[in-house]
Amino acid sequence: MGIGLTFVLVAVTLGGYAYYLNFDSRIPRAPIDPGQARPPETGALNVLLVGSDSREGDNKKYGAKSQGLGERTDTIMLLHISPNRDKATMISFPRDTMVLIPACKTRTGGVLAAGLRQINSAFNEGGINCTVATLESLTNIKINHFVKVDFTGFKGIIDAIGGIEICLPKAVNDPKAKLQLSAGKHVVSGEQALGYVRTRYALGDGSDLSRIQRQQVFLTKVLEKVTGGGLLTSPGKLVGFLNAATKAVQVDDQLTSSRMLEIADSVKGLTAKELKGITVPVEAYPADKNRVQFRQPDARNFFEAVRSDVEVTPTAGPSAAPKIENDKVRVQVLNGTTETGKAVQVADELAEQGFVVTQVGNAAPTPTTAIRYARKDGANGVAYGDAVAARLSKDKRTPVAGKVAPVNPKPYATKATEVPDGPVVQLVIGADWPGVRVVSAIPGSLKDKVVDSTTNPCL
């Protein structure tokens, strides 16, 4: 399960080093063709990360070759990078999860009938495209790219970056994972790192969920090492890294060098601190105690939140201003486009998000969407305007002081039972209207299960 290599290769290519074309040309590519209708684009970047545990070639010593399956996966992750490219979430899918897999083409050219199976059987029997079809049908999130790696690639990348420090709560002796270490901190080599992320019963509670959390912590440490250890600024180290990384990886045919550079420019401000790891909420599968199933409605709400770009751990800094709740904000909506009824449409969308829309009307046609507050409201007006700006899709608009009395206003009946006091915010819809970002809440049951760079590594 080349999980570390998978993410780090993405991190490096997204970090602007796709110009190493002599390495790039070594990477085999394959098209994404799930063979079904696909979810809409949202502006987010979603990369499927698959760790292949093929026992072919150099990987033979890690277990008996799968009978009739060739390569398998025990690691499936979706790397979700927000439309604004300011945060990233690693979403892990436990391999033992029972899900409905759609009809897919098999590796041998046959057809896999739709049915209830373990989620990793999509890859085992149908390869990448069946995995894409399965995840898209489960999440309604469009997968833009994929990266697949194996054991050899994982070891090579960890060796190339000089190892990763881990912390063991107890001594480990796991012959199956080929891991034997004392309790405490260790800098593990590629071979030991592979054992650390593969071992299941020697650490944690023996579940796949416990192992996934350990893998996520490990990945945040790998990303910290890559971005903060001089690798990306040292040509010598980078060449060694790329030489190891490109030996055991496959990507989709749209993840070209030019595409990598395009993505790199958009995420250049993203660091390990913005990376969060979370596991899809699951519960015991009644028919088999060794399997799990999605816990509803939490899983459904979680996928909706990801599609809506909700941060998994929204926290404010110690000096941040108090957040203005939507139901405290009065909004006037003016239509500055040529589209009839646009003000009412947007007012409806804002009301659904809890805003108190008081009036709708028309404004002179304008190319640019604007958010205004009365000059007399000062900083308070800015705060209320920011609450509206935060709900717009794509680029955030900065509220400006100005006249907020609308032209030809009409009352708008909101769902609010009481109109609050405070500044009135005026939203003028321009020709560049970005849309209202529909926001859902991350299920409360998941908030204490998020992994990031501050998570205790002694798991």
Proportion in β-strands: 15-25%
For the biggest sheet, the summary is: 7 strands, mixed
**Rounded to an integer, what's the Rg over CA atoms?**
25 Å
CATH class of the largest domain: Alpha Beta
Shape: elongated
What is the CATH superfamily label of the largest domain? LCP protein
Helix content: 25-40%
DSSP strand count = 23
- Write down the domain tally: 2
Poorly predicted tracts of residues: 1-7, 14-19, 64-69, 314-320
Q: Give the CATH architecture of the largest domain.
A: 3-Layer(aba) Sandwich
CATH structural fold name of the largest domain: Aminopeptidase
Q: Strands of the biggest beta sheet: in what spatial order?
A: 1-14-9-2-3-4-15
Discrete helix count = 11
- The average pLDDT value, as a whole number, equals 80
Query: Structural class of the secondary elements?
Result: alpha/beta
Fold and architecture overview:
It is a single chain. The chain is an alpha/beta fold and 459 residues long. The chain folds into 2 domains: 3-314 and 442-449, LCP protein (Aminopeptidase), CATH 3.40.630; 326-429, Alpha-Beta Plaits (2-Layer Sandwich), CATH 3.30.70. 28% of the residues lie in helices and 24% in strands. The strands form 7 sheets. It has a 7-stranded mixed beta sheet, with helices on both faces.
Concise description?
This protein is of the alpha/beta class and 459 residues long. The protein has helices spanning 3-14, 21-24, 121-139, 151-160, 190-198, 208-228, 235-245, 257-266, 298-307, 342-352, 378-389, and strands at residues 29-30, 45-52, 73-81, 88-92, 98-101, 104-105, 111-112, 115-118, 145-150, 164-168, 172-174, 179-181, 184-188, 249-252, 275-279, 282-285, 288-294, 330-335, 356-362, 370-373, 400-401, 407-411, 424-429. The protein folds into two domains: 3-314 and 442-449, LCP protein (Aminopeptidase, 3-Layer(aba) Sandwich); 326-429, 2-Layer Sandwich (Alpha-Beta Plaits).
